[in-house]
Design goal:
The chain has about 180 residues and is an alpha+beta fold. The chain is globular and about 45 Å long. It holds the Pfam family Gad2.
Length: about 180
């Protein structure tokens, strides 16, 4: 389970990556869970338009212990994940996508329920927001890609059933605070 210190560590790492010219964003399940008022179990920092060795060097220079992983699922993957790094002692992953922009990476997520991102992180936890950035409103579960396995579809349906009652599905608001008086952190 993620606490405020873990989230701050992810914000700090995100700032470091951006300061080195890397396009990155916190997106996916962590952002989604915060939007619905649930404490996330881990944090994914999405990184695009760079190579594994570049990110590895940045982590090493900052004395961040991490274990690299590569995905080998044939020639191509429709979600476009190359691999990434699991931080040692923290529930934070840096995930590399073969995309030119973070928007392109988020568009490649398998379900609309995962198309949330934390924005305005430069303002800190209390000034950051979660924003839904998908094309299909989160009030209805939509497979953005058709290649999800039956077990993945089942897990996403279970997640949808758990989360949706926490918000009014017809609401037009697609943004929620991360911290402060109205956010979970």
């Amino acid at each position: 389970m993620i606490n405020r210190a873990s989230l701050q560590a992810a914000f700090d790492l995100l700032d470091l990556l951006k300061s080195k010219g890397i396009e990155a964003i916190i997106a996916g399940g962590c952002a989604r869970d915060i939007f619905f008022g649930v404490k996330p179990k881990d944090i994914d920092i999405i990184v695009v338009d760079t190579e594994m060795d570049v990110v590895e060097a940045i982590l090493a220079e900052a004395n961040v212990a991490a274990v690299g992983f590569h995905l080998y699922r044939g020639e191509t993957t429709s979600d476009r994940i190359i691999g990434g790094f699991k931080l040692v002692g923290a529930e934070i992953d840096v995930v590399l996508y073969s995309c030119n922009t973070v928007s392109e990476a988020i568009d490649a997520f398998d379900f609309n329920l995962n198309q949330f991102a934390i924005v305005d992180t430069r303002h800190g936890i209390d000034g950051a927001f979660v924003r839904f950035v998908g094309k299909h409103h989160w009030g209805q579960l939509v497979a953005v890609r058709e290649d999800a396995s039956p077990s993945r579809k089942g897990r996403m349906w279970d997640k949808y059933i758990d989360l949706i009652p926490r918000r009014a599905t017809g609401e037009l608001i697609n943004e929620a605070p991360v911290g402060g008086d109205d956010g979970p952190f």
